[in-house]
Amino acid sequence: MRPVICHVGSANPVKVNAAGQTLQRVLNVPVTPQAHQVNSGVPDQPMNAQETRAGAVNRVQTMLDELIPANTSADWFMAFEGGVEMTCDGPVTFAYVAIYHDGEWSVTRSSSLPLPPVVYQALSEGQELGDVMDRLFNTTNIKQQGGAIGLLTHHLATRQSVYELAVIMAMARFNHAELFKS
Question: What is the CATH number of the domain that holds 32?
Fold first, then answer.
C-alpha cells in the first residue's frame, strides 16, 4: 500500500507538522508530509481576508501545477496563509487553510485572535506579524514556534493548534463528501 502523502505549501515546521499530524488523525492512516517552498502570490503580510484566502489557494495551486504529473490522486495538497484585518471590533489575526484532494477543494478560515492596536499599526506600516511579536516579546522566530497566538494566549493556544483545528474543520467536506455535492 502506497503511503498517504500530504504536500504542504511551506517549509515552516509549524505548518508542515499541523498538516501532517492532523491529516493522519483525521484519516487514521500514516501520513508523510512533504514540504514545498512555494510563493503565495500575495504580500508577505496579507492585510485582509481576500488576500489571505488567495495566498492559501495560490500555494496549493502552485503545487498542483508543478507536482501533479509526478503524483497520484491519492496525494493531498494543503497550504496555510496567515493574515490580519480590521473588524468592527478591532484588529485580528487569522489563517486560511486550503486543501485539495482527488479533484475536490476545501477552503476555510481559522478562528480569529484580537491584536493590540500597536501591533496592527506596525503591520499597517509594512512589518510582518512574527517580526513585530519577536520585538515586543523579546523572542526569536516566534512564527516557527507558538506564534502571536501562543504569546497572546499564554500558550493555551498556539499557531499550530489553531492550524490543526482549521484542518479538522476543512476536512468535513471530505469526511462527508456526499453531503457537499450539489
Answer: 3.90.950.10
